[in-house]
Amino acid sequence: MKMVSRSCLYLGGIIMFSFVATAISGPLDPNFYDKVCPQALPAIKTVVLEALRQERRMGASLLRLHFHDCFVNGCDGSILLDSTSSFTSEKFSLANNNSARGFEVVDRIKWEVDRVCGRPVVSCADVLAVAARDSVFALGGPYWKVELGRRDSTTASITTADADIPAPFMNLPQLIDNFKKQGLDVKDLVVLSGGHTLGFSQCRAFRTRIYNDTNIDSTFARQLQAICPRVGGDSNLAPLDPTPAHFDTKYFSDLTLRKGLLPSDQALFNGGETDSLVKEYSSDLDDFGEDFTKSMIKMGNIKPLTGNRGQIRSNCRRAN
Ligand code: HEM
Ligand SMILES: *[C@@H]1O[C@H](CO)[C@@H](O)[C@H](O)[C@H]1NC(C)=O
Ligand SMILES: *[C@@H]1O[C@H](CO)[C@@H](O)[C@H](O)[C@H]1NC(C)=O
User: What are the structural domains of the chain?
Assistant: First the structure.
């Protein structure tokens, strides 16, 4: 039996050999669109790269959209739906309101992929999964084969979004429990939190940390207090790690220096059971990249709609 396939990729000017275990997990399939629309994945990549040329942060924002999609009733594109008379959009949930971004880029990707395919064959949920992978790779992270064939929901749930998307104020047991409800383990929690090697946070999410926490480097806290006052400036931005446009190990090495930005970041290195994993990833980019890939595939397999369940939306913002 063939266990490992070897592919040679020429992407972004680098030659890379990747060894990809052929997954036997779940109903998704990395070759799902190969026959029906072989141009689909290149089209997604083109629009993602175009968006990243305009704004590096967009890669982070697209990665986060896939995460917030998968944690609410599975990876079904529900986060992209606008409100209707029968439900309120997840865009207004606690974690997403004035925070989740990249919806216009997703619209552009979907428009382009449907154009090259000649009809809507690629789901919005799959667009998010591929855009997240392309973003990570473009910013120096690992490459992986995205498993595909998700279909889109016809409804969204702000209640579930509020209940299931983790909050930055959670402690380690709460974070572990939150991920466990999605079928994700402690290792998935730690390595996927490494997504915070990219992007930014608003002051409102890290204010308690820089004024009230004791497990914080004092110079780091003072620097952030200049950006994030005790009162006001709620949406002022600070990078989640010192290199917010590079997928690297800085997120983890900063945790070991008590320089995690969010309470939930530092919770991963605070004398508990996850300290050793944080240490490991802080000094081993290959290890981080490899485990990140595995956990992204696992996260991407949370309760997908397949077969004749759900639909392929024409417009990611509303059901057909
Ligand atoms: C472990 C629990 C997690 C919590 C509590 C959490 C919380 C947050 C918060 C509060 C922000 C800042 C949002 C804002 O201020 O507007 C943020 C940003 C971000 N999160 Fe997480 N997150 C978690 C896990 C993850 C995971 C698993 C990923 C992806 C694999 C991820 C990817 C990102 C990215 C890329 C950003 C930056 C987005 C941007 O700059 O637009 N996060 N997260
Ligand atoms: C979302 O944010 C806006 C401000 O931009 C606010 O008016 C609205 O009440 C918020 N919605 C929810 C549901 O919190
Ligand atoms: C810090 O803690 C005090 C006492 O619990 C509380 O009153 C205050 O609101 C907290 N400040 C921040 C910024 O969280």
Answer: 27-164 (1.10.520.10), 172-297 (1.10.420.10)
